[in-house]
Amino acid sequence: MSDTKKVLSFAVELGDILLRNGAEVYRVEDSVLAILNSYDITDCDVYVLSNGIFASADEVTEHASSMIRHVPMYPTHLGRIAGLNALCREVCSKEITLDEAWAKLEECKRIPSYNFPMLIIATAIGCGGFSYLYGGTVLDALIACIVGAVLRLFLHFEARMGNSKTITNVLASMVISLTAILFYAVGLPVHYDKIIIGAIMPLVPGIPLTNSIRDFINSDYLSGSIRLIDALLTAFCIAVGVGVVITFAHFIGGGAYI
Amino acid sequence: MIADYIIQFIIAMVATLAFAMIFSAPKSELLFCGLSGAIGWISYSIISTVLGAPTLGNMIGSLFLTLFSRSLAVKRKNPVTVYLIAGIFPLVPGAGIYYTSYYLIMNNMETFGSYGLSTIKTAGAIVMGIIFGMAFPQSWFNTVFAPSCHKSSSH
Asked: For the Threonine/Serine exporter ThrE domain, which residue ranges apply (chain B) (predicted)?
């Protein structure tokens, strides 16, 4: 087939955007292969890591082409994954041509997230809810709501400074524990640890950790290790942030606050 | 007791729905994301308090929510990831990871070790639940839940 290169670049671009928005390794692999196969390119190999794609097609013909992509890890965007999945199905069933598909792919890339006020409300409610579920009282949950809103505001303004993920996590968890301990220090009858647990939920890498173990069990050991190390590093940063603030609170309060 | 579980169900649902928004789930699917989170949490909560087996609870919880997510994926023609990622959020050992690294930094090695092991155990149990849930043949879901008799969502 003469348009191997066109098909391959579309398939890899779709895989790239899927991976970038947090899709699993096997889904990316399956999607790229499905598109290639639907265009009768069966002599192909696709190797996907959690931050890279390697693909080659029709290696023995004169249309041989191969592609390598480096895909940095970004926050999960489920809306784009859903959109791309639908697009992939349309392409595979040949409902649309490749050119139309490229236009749709550009649209999928630009599916927006929720707007900022909605995100503040969502983070606040989520943090409060988890603080309650993990054993906090109703008052703890309410305070966790406030701390969650503060966290989202902080993340929003901190994003403009262009700090690395490490620094962002350390600073954000410091802000969380400072705010939580402040409420405790003014004398409210709250459990500051339950508030902190609820409020760090948007930061802690619970889902990367679970996904990394899923990768291990799917025998994608390399992807699993990459995600595992990423998860552990994130957790470590959060603990540093919280640890620093709590240690200082002990020091300043002499045990009175904590 | 029952009222307590109902409250937990509602709070887990609202909290999962809120976090699904942070993960930018499509607007039309938010309610279902919340439901799948609530189903996972309530199964975990009931099993861990009634049988006193939190690890089994994690596994059964994630098994139920995987099955629920797969049914929704077929019914609503979306990838299963949308419901699964949002739904496992209440179960994932976020607090465990935090406590583990916190006690490492506080130089409390005994507690660090026990939290670390229990975190890995929890994550493993959740993954086992997901794997069992994924092992059911896709055709079962297609015949029961597909909107038309046409071929439905992949995965």
From this structure: 8-133
